[in-house]
Amino acid sequence: MKILVFNDYCIIGNIAMKANISVLSQNGHEVFGVPTKIFSSNMSYKDYISFCIPNFSEIVKKIFEIQKIDAIYIGFIDDEEIFEIIKDILQKFKGKVILDTILGDNGVKYSGTTNGQIDFYRELLKFADAVTPNLTEAILLTDYNKNFSEIEREDVEKIASNLLEMGAKQIIIKSFEKNNLLNTLYFSENTIKWFESEKVELKICGTGDVFSSLVTSELVKGEHLENSIQKIQTLLFDNIEKQEKYEGLNEIQLENFKIGE
User: Fold this and answer.
1) Which residues form the Pyridoxamine kinase/Phosphomethylpyrimidine kinase domain (predicted)?
2) Distance between CA 3 and CA 63 in Å, rounded?
3) DSSP codes, 211-238
4) 86 near 93, Cβ under 8 Å?
5) Which of 45, 188, 201, 238 holds its CA 20 to 30 A away from the CA of 228?
6) pLDDT reading at 43 higher than 80
């Protein structure tokens, strides 16, 4: 399948578009990545710099002239012009759309996240065949009025229901911690299903990007996502367990993410 990825590109760091291209390619897809922003490194590094690429619209137009795109993956957006270009594309697009909202984690917005970005993603929900927020991002998207530390399973299901009403067809909410386990909710019009996985205590950058890329691969292959989440979580956990860990910042290693192997 041919997948167009709109996401930020970090020159240093195995995250964002770098993770998308690696994981989707390993699973047999042809990937065309157009950066919505270029960062010198991920935001965990001090004094990073960033900029938008010129001629974004012209580049995307050329891709559609040359290739038939089967799916569009949307990650980081913080520029209104780029958002409007992507929204216009989605209004005409007939393939699958995957939305990976990049807004915050652990109950806190990322330092650069704006209300404008939250509004961008809210508008794109109606195009999404699947949306993959972590719990913090799902709360921000729905403006759910409860303290992060007090959230229970029934709250997560209400949040997912709100996202369904906002237009998303399938919702996968990650990173809900309970009893020292990570809980993931799959929610659609007809299905509510919970998945548990062991928690790795060390913070590993890029795991969310890998997870959403694997969801995208399964979706465009025609798999039922409620049947894919457990094997995705197992693959992620096994890879994280095997990789060498360091004090301080750790990044996901991208070598072995073909589903089924």
Assistant:
1) 55-243
2) 11
3) HHHHHHHHHHTT--GGGTHHHHHHHHHH
4) no
5) 201
6) no
